[in-house]
């Protein structure tokens, strides 16, 4: 009744090709933005910012990055943690080496470093596919982390190998460092997520995204119709790693504050990011965000839920319980909707369109 | 029937609630000690005894002494699986509960690193007792962090002192070969700079062998040790890594008497899985193990009602359990001083910090609190957060218990302290911290 495009006439190509062609979608997005930009900062406390929202946004950027590579271009990667680490360590070197450098520019430059590294490790994708490529990117994961752990130059010869986010300001607001207000850091991660999500969405809708999808669906056929596999695949690796690199930089500088390479390891980062896009939906920006929300927020919710309803259980039992329920929910969602949250969302939209008179 | 049972439940809750109120009334305030624990995962063998020690000592204070200066000791656990990210979430969750945390005891070097920058902002001091960031011993740069009674660097230098004593003097170390087997993380790497410096100074050969998290697979490491034949092996391990290392050392026939763990690598859970092969294994310590000490006897009496079996099932008397009791003792003593500073009221974060900096664990004070012979004695100052007497005891596993020669091996302050101050200055520069004058 409320959600239908009947009567909405497009009089230009531009209007027809808009990201959100239906006015209701635009309204919905407007509400989402108002909530994210205005309502949440007013009501959330430090715990929500620090433990829930900032990691959610940071991982959403990483998930969008991986989704470009795996979901759109069909190249399986287990190296997202390593590419994030490149971004983080590059930012660290940049901001400590050039203290006057604006940290936002440092984030973007580090993204470029990550893109370069990603393209190097993407080279094998021209020869190998599927599981074999996954193993090659796994090698990247181990190799890159090993380098950051081994070469003391990367962590400024700090005896313990930790990198720490120094305090840096942007337009007079402290963005990184311990004294940066949670709300500032929240806005930084949110703005990055907004820009990157729109960029990814537009790339996916355009010429580039179509080329990626053609490669994903059948690379031989794509080559025959004139898509250059080298160019396209490497671009996917580069752009994906750029996203991951910026996410990694935000991960340390805006969220955690300090870390060692262990923070980027396979089980802590690479696999969860892959799960985010599988659960959220391969080849979908919205799915990446929903998947990131599911994987980052649900465990925290499950741990905190029993005490919230007044059930006193020991901390370790709550953790075990969380792991059990979380695992069961992943299996449940994958059985019910293997195509992920994004597909669930689409089904819901179709249902609303026909509501209340389905035919 | 249904309403009746509902009413019963409601009545029960009401009675429970008034009961809770009643017991609250006896205390004037709550002193909250948040506790990040890891009872699950690869570090649980080390995490469980540690968590139990803290829990029991806090309970003991409430039961035996009626809290701290009349204030109730409240503690809450948060499980973080030794994963620093979850640990940060735990910290954010716990720090404001029960009117605010008195101090934090991260019990993880990785987590300590995360929390150090947050401490001055939240005004919650960090007690990283014998772990954490070594450079934090420089109180001018790290006013909110305390790592007495000895840092990793002091500990490593004390171990070299011990090895020197065994070899007949530090001069004899020239040409000797010492291997450092370490957890490949911030924690494990901590001792390396000191060992490097001492190797250069004393002329022994140093081989550094990293073991990747979680340390269940160490065949390659010990193969290298078999090949390189070091005279001594020093280990910085944690969790499941320790027992694996001891088993591997036994399997290549490395003499246990020349294998020394740091004080996080020498607890009961580490040696028992290796059985008789672990006999002779050495480790550093700062306090006695076993159930003999008075405070442990008190715990058995007050918390376990004299039930030795139940106490043993809760790790009472194990090295890491006793270590945690020591940590809880220092933490609560500091807060006791802070309560006095606050004129008997609930202290603020600044007052707890002040109490830390003026902490004087004199022998007389230890006698008074029944901890003589258990807790090391030292004095903290504004400049020196490590305490003025860093050093170690060496304990040895006999197959059933830890024995010690009772000798105290001091750290080499002349080597370690300048390194600490240099590292702290580098941190200050990187993070734009203006060191205090003291």
Q: What would you say this structure looks like, in words?
A:
The complex is a heterodimer of chains A (359) and B (438). With 359 residues, chain A is mostly helical. Chain A has 2 domains: 39 residues, no CATH class; 307 residues, ABC transporter involved in vitamin B12 uptake, BtuC (Orthogonal Bundle), CATH 1.10.3470. In chain A, strands 1-4 form a two-stranded antiparallel sheet. In chain A, strands 2-3 form a two-stranded antiparallel sheet. In chain A, β2 and β3 form a beta hairpin. The longest helix of chain A has 28 residues. The two termini of chain A are 13 Å apart. Chain B is α/β, with parallel strands linked by helices. Chain B folds into 2 domains: 222 residues, Response regulator (Rossmann fold, 3-Layer(aba) Sandwich); 153 residues, 3-Layer(aba) Sandwich (Rossmann fold). Helices cover 45% and strands 15% of the residues of chain B. Chain B has 17 helices and 13 strands. In chain B, the strands form 4 sheets. In chain B, strands 6-5-7-8-9-12-13 form a 7-stranded mixed sheet, with helices on both faces. In chain B, α3 packs across α4 and α14 crosses α15. The radius of gyration of chain B is 22 Å and the shape is globular. At the A-B interface, α3, β4, α12 and α13 of A face β2, α3, α4, α7 and α17 of B.
């Amino acid at each position: 009744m409320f959600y239908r495009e009947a009567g909405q006439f497009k009089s230009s190509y531009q209007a027809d090709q808009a990201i959100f062609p239906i006015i209701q979608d635009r309204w919905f997005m407007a509400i989402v933005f108002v909530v994210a930009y205005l309502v949440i900062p007013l009501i959330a406390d430090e715990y929500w910012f620090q433990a829930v929202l900032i990691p959610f946004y940071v991982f959403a950027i990483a998930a969008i990055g991986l989704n470009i590579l795996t979901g759109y271009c069909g190249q399986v990667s287990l190296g997202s943690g390593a590419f994030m680490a490149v971004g983080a360590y590059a930012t660290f070197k940049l901001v400590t080496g050039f203290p006057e450098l604006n940290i936002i520019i440092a984030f973007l430059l580090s993204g470029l470093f990550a893109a370069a590294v990603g393209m190097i490790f993407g080279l094998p994708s021209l020869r190998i596919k599927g599981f074999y490529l996954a193993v090659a990117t796994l090698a990247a994961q181990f190799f890159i982390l090993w380098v950051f752990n081994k070469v003391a130059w990367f962590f400024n010869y700090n005896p313990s190998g930790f990198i720490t986010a120094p305090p840096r300001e942007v337009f007079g607001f402290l963005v990184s460092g311990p004294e940066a207000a949670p709300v500032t850091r929240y806005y930084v991660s949110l703005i990055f997520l907004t820009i990157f999500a729109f960029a990814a969405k537009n790339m996916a809708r355009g010429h580039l995204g179509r080329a990626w999808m053609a490669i994903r669906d059948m690379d031989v056929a794509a080559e025959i119709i004139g898509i250059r596999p080298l160019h396209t695949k490497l671009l996917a690796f580069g752009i994906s790693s750029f996203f991951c690199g910026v996410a990694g930089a935000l991960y340390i500088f805006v969220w955690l504050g300090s870390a060692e390479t262990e923070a980027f390891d396979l089980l802590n980062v690479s696999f969860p990011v892959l799960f985010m896009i599988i659960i959220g939906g391969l080849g979908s920006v919205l799915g990446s965000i929903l998947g990131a929300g599911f994987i980052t927020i649900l465990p925290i919710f499950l741990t905190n839920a029993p005490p919230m309803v007044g059930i006193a259980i020991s901390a370790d039992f709550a953790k075990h319980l969380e792991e059990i329920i979380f695992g069961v929910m992943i299996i449940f969602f994958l059985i019910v909707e293997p195509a992920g949250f994004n597909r669930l969302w689409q089904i819901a939209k179709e249902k609303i369109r026909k509501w209340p008179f389905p035919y | 029937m249904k309403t009746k049972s509902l009413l019963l439940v409601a009545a029960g809750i009401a009675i429970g609630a008034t009961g809770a109120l009643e017991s609250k009334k006896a205390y004037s305030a709550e002193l909250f000690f948040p506790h990040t624990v890891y009872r699950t995962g690869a570090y649980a063998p080390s995490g469980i005894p540690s968590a139990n020690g803290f829990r029991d000592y806090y309970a003991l204070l409430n039961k035996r002494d009626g809290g701290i200066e009349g204030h109730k000791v409240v503690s809450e656990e948060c499980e973080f699986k030794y994963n620093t990210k979850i640990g940060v979430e735990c910290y954010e969750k716990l720090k404001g509960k029960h009117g605010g945390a008195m101090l934090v005891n991260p019990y993880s070097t990785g987590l300590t690193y995360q929390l150090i920058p947050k401490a001055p902002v939240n005004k919650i001091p960090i007690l990283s007792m014998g772990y954490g960031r070594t450079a934090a011993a420089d109180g001018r740069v790290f006013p909110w962090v305390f790592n007495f009674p000895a840092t990793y660097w002091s500990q490593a230098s004390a171990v070299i002192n011990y090895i020197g004593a065994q070899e007949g003097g530090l001069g004899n170390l020239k040409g000797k070969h010492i291997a450092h087997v370490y957890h490949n993380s911030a924690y494990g790497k901590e001792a390396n700079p000191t060992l490097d410096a001492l190797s250069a100074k004393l002329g022994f050969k140093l081989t550094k062998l990293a073991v990747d998290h979680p340390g269940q697979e160490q065949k390659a490491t010990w193969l290298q040790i078999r090949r390189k034949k070091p005279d001594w092996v020093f280990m910085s391990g944690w969790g499941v890594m320790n027992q694996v290392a001891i088993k591997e050392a036994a399997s290549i026939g490395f003499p246990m008497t020349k294998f020394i763990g740091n004080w996080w690598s020498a607890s009961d859970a580490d040696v028992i899985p290796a059985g008789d092969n672990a006999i002779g294994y050495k480790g550093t310590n700062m306090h006695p193990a076993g159930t003999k000490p008075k405070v442990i006897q008190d715990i058995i009496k007050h918390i376990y009602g004299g039930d030795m079996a139940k106490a043993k099932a809760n790790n009472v008397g194990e090295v890491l359990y006793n270590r945690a009791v020591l940590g809880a003792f220092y933490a609560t003593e500091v807060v006791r001083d802070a309560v006095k500073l606050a004129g008997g009221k609930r202290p603020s974060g600044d007052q707890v910090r002040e109490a830390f900096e003026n902490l004087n664990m004199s022998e007389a004070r230890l006698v008074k609190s029944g901890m003589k012979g258990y807790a090391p004695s030292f004095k903290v100052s504004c400049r020196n957060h490590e305490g003025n007497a860093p050093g170690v005891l060496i304990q040895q596993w006999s197959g059933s218990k830890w024995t010690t020669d009772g000798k105290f091996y001091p750290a080499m302050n002349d080597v370690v302290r300048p390194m600490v101050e240099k590292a702290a200055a580098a941190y200050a520069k990187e993070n734009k911290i203006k060191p205090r004058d003291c």
